[in-house]
Amino acid sequence: MSKAVETVKAKVAASEAKTRMRQRHVHHLVVTDGLELAGIVSERDLGGPKLPKALGKWTVADLMTSPVVTVTTRTPLRRAAALMKGRSLGSLVVTSANGKVAGIVTVSDLLDLIARTPEHRSNRALRRVRDREAWGEQ
Fold first, then answer.
1. Cα torsion for 5, 92, 60, 99, to the nearest 10°?
2. What is the Cβ-side half-sphere exposure of residue 96, based on CA atoms within 13 angstroms?
3. Best label site of 29, 66, 68, 84, fewest CB within 10 Å?
């Protein structure tokens, strides 16, 4: 999870949000509308690494994912991964017990965690997945 969360207001021009992502070396911005969590916008939502010429016509609100899917700091990683897979999401906003944004968890974060897991533990998990698929379970 990345605890350094960058935010952007929903009414900001998409091109400005893209510039902010580049300057801050981030791939996601949490979108706010006043004090409310409004959505999340990714580099992919804004056209990928290159800045499309047509982006100037849009605001962040036009391109963000909303409603935003959140998890808490106590949500098990397996549940977070299932939410991402089930909804084809690249990231989730993590909230604290008091509802404040605590971070963002991405698919890359989950892959990093798997890569750091001791091999014997990850092999056991992969065997469970393989065995479930062999029996036609999801």
1. -60
2. 6
3. 66
